[in-house]
Design brief:
With about 270 residues, the protein is mainly beta. Helix content is about 5%, strand content about 55%. It has 2 domains: about 1-125, no CATH class; about 155-274, no CATH class. The radius of gyration is 23 Å and the shape is globular. The chain starts with a strand and ends with a strand.
Amino acid sequence: MKRIYITILSVLLTGSAHLNIISQNIDKQEFKIPLSNPGKPGKLKVGLHRGSIKIDGYNGNEVVVTVIHNIDEDKEEDEKNRKSRDGLRRIPNTAAEFNITERDNFVRIQDVDNKESNFEIKVPNRFSLSLSAHHDGYVEVNDVIGEIEVQAHHDDIVLNRIGGSVTANTHHGEIKVTFQSVSSDTPMAFSTYHGDIDITFPANVNAFAKIKTTKGEIYTDFDMDMKPQSALVESGTSKGTKIQVGGWLTGNLGAGGAEYLFNTYRGDVIIRKK
C-alpha cells in the first residue's frame, strides 16, 4: 500500500518570518505566499531535481503552494530489510528540504536535497512561469497567461488553455499545448526527442513555422504551404566547400510572423486549428 507523507525542513518567505516546520504523517502541507504588488503580473520560477509540477491559474492575488512528498512503503520496507548497521534498525529519512522566496512579485521555489517532492501551485491568471523538472518530472499548467518556459527531461509537458508564449523542451516525453491566445511577434519553440508535439493554436494565428521530425510525420488542418529549407552553403574558405541540408520544412501559419519551431526526432508534429 502506498501512503503519502510530507516533512518540510525549512521554508523561507522573503519579507516575512523565517519558518521552520516539521510535520509527519499528513497528506499535504499548504503555504500561502502574499505578493509584494497584488493585482499586478508576476513570475514564478520552480526548479526540481525529482518530482512533478502542476500549476493552476486562478482569480486571486497570492501564490498558493501545496507540497506532497511521496514515499512507497513497500520500497522502504525492502530497503530497510536490506540495509542495517551493527544489527540496528534503519529509520528512513523522509525529511524534505526546499526554499520558497518572494520579492517584487517574483516567487522562486527550489529543492535542496534532491528527494522527490511534488508541487501543486495556484498563481494569478496573469503570471509568467519558468519551470524545470528532471526525474519523474511531469509538468502541467492550466489557465495561465504569460511567458511560459518549461524544461522536463524525463516526462510529458501538458499546457491547457494558455495565453501568451511558450518555450517547451523535454527529452523522454510528449509536448501538448492548447492556446486560447498567443502573443503577436513573440517566437516560440517546442522540442523533444522521444515523443509527439501536439499544439493547438487559435484559427487567426500568424507565424512562420519551422518543422523537423526525423522518424515521424507532420499533420495539420491549417492551410500551410511547407517547403524544405534552403541548403546552407559555405565556400571560398581554406577548407573548401560545405553544403548542409538540415531536414527542416518551413512555411507560414496564416500571414506569417514570428518563428515557431517544432523539433522531434522520434515522434509526430501535430498542429491543430482551435
